[in-house]
Amino acid sequence: MPALIRADEGRNVKVAVLGAGVIGVTSAWYLAEAGHEVTVLERQPEAGLETSYANGGQIAAGHAEPWAQPSVIPKVLQWLGREDAPMLFRPRADRAQWAWAVRFAIECFPGRFERNMRELLGLALYSRDCLRALRKASALQYDSLTRGILHFCSTQRDFEALARHAEATRSLGIGREVKSAEECMAIEPALRRSQVPIAGGVYTPRDESGDAFAFTRGLAQLARERGVRFIHEATARALDSSADRISGVRVQGGAIERLEADAYVIALGSYSPLLLAPVGVRIPVYPLKGYSITVPLSPEHAAAAPSVSLTDDSHKIVISRLGARLRSAGTAELTGYDTTVNAVRCEAILKRVQKLFPALTGAGSVETWAGLRPATPSNVPLIGRTRFRNLFLNTGHGTLGWTLACGSGQVLADLVSGRRPQVAFRIQ
After folding, report:
1. Where are the alpha helices (DSSP H) in 226-298?
2. Distances from the Cα of 314 to the Cαs of 19, 198, 347, 352, in angstroms?
3. Eight-class DSSP state of 220
4. CA–CA separation, 282 vs 19, rounded Å?
5. Rounded-to-10 torsion of CA 340, 249, 385, 277
6. pTM for the predicted model, two decimal places
7. Residues of the chain whose pLDDT is less than 70?
């Protein structure tokens, strides 16, 4: 890890956090805990209304690994042309899209995959510990469940591959427990009624699930009570720079036209590179569009719904119980900044859930959603200082934003404060 350069010699400073998703809000919280004066700028009327709003709900530290891995390339080729494919590439006349895709392919090489996985795992385990400490200290309520995550397969071939992978990761300290079909159904009895065969799976008992939006909104309120200032319905339009520092942020909407601080944190998710490029900071972040459906559960349907968070290996979707709702999310679509909900892809998720849990058919009005995950080709997020001494990044978390949020916020706060983070991580 390179030597850290203190921001303003580590003293308490005024910090502007741009973005109030789960990453921006956790950044603001830990910065305030470190004694800094924090202002958060957000274009939405409330925290957490974009990518953090309806994700899959998993805090999957035990399954924190890159999408970019050797087995993905042949699968992507098989998925070409399939509208319901787990990963879909929609070619565009967009240099950033093609550059990202090429770098993603390079990151699939075994050596790179293993390095990236180690980094993600270290940050994920640290983040899970940070979340537990925060939950204990604050009593935040967000439909959290601490029953682990069960990753199951519907074919013997896939199960054997998953079991081999679980064995190979033991050296990294991951507690993945290989389970037979019967053991999977004992962990989650709702799978006994599945119309999809269950061949076996892998269980990570220390993993969790919960509503990222409820968490983000609740933590934002706690942050306000600690003195963090939130400016909503205000968009960061441009960064003003002078020599090796950022001097301010030009704002559209809200009560101010310009925001000035001692340090600035970019937590704008997929939109981060758009704000950074004009000041010469290029980052390899591109949006991966994902979809989710949320099914309301009546008391009758609740009894037939799973209560352990699940990952369906063959369809690459996750399923989480959020109180009186069931959330299922998945797919990755490289299609630029389009947030339109594709009914075909949402219908594919719904049909799969109904096959797994037939009693949920007709459970009620289904809410569909699409969001843009800010992904780096390696899936390792960008956390740290840029070439500007007072400009920091906390973005690029891809599908693991909820899993990595608290740890990323603490690491960011440590860096702004001039402290060495407590977790080994490749600082930008």
Report:
1. 272-276
2. 34, 11, 16, 10
3. H
4. 18
5. 50
6. 0.93
7. 1-10, 76-86, 425-428
